[in-house]
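User: Some background: our group keeps a shared notebook of sequences we're curious about, and every so often someone picks one and asks for a predicted structure to add to the entry. Today it's my turn. The entry only has the sequence so far, pasted here. Could you supply the structure so I can complete it?
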Amino acid sequence: MSDPLSKHAVMEDYRYTADWFGAHIHNWRNWLGELAGKPDVRFLEVGSYEGRAVVWLLANILTHENASIDCVDPFLEDGFYGLGRTRNYEERFDHNVKTALGTKKVRKIKLPSYEALRKLQPCSYHAIYIDGSHNAADVLEDAVLAFRLLRPNGIMIFDDYGWAEFSDPWLMPRIAIDSFLHIYRGKYELVAHGYQVAVRKR
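Assistant: Of course. Here's the predicted structure to add to the notebook entry:
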């Protein structure tokens, strides 16, 4: 990675089993750089897994003492992430956040996204990352609920637009993201459209 995962630890201190985030760091620095170091920045992540994106954000964007991030994830004890079975990833998430000295900035919301997002305050986040379920219906629901939570001029990033592991389109995010972009046309400006998609709320 070209940017540090943390200013307080080296890579060996963290516990990761996969890296699905590192390839996007350059884009994230461009998309989110305007928020770096600013006070009271609020970030929302839907789908946190082991916390790799969170750790990078803590070191590079959410650097002000008053910046914070809410992490929504059911933190399943035994389930699937991507195409592989994973166990106890919550323990790795907690360890990685603690190692990055981010405990005071990170609020863990251990709920399915369809429950958690309905409980959060509208127009309260400067940036949101949608990276939970790959199921198209789930992704669309996350997008609609999360967009209400985004401040005007805020950035929303979708992961896995280019993910194509199944033949059934309803099991992949692409059709949901396309639907959101079509239905919400006029309510956002398209920032990027690649493997990840980013929009700025008007």
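Suggested note for the entry: The chain has one domain: 11-201. The mean pLDDT is 92.
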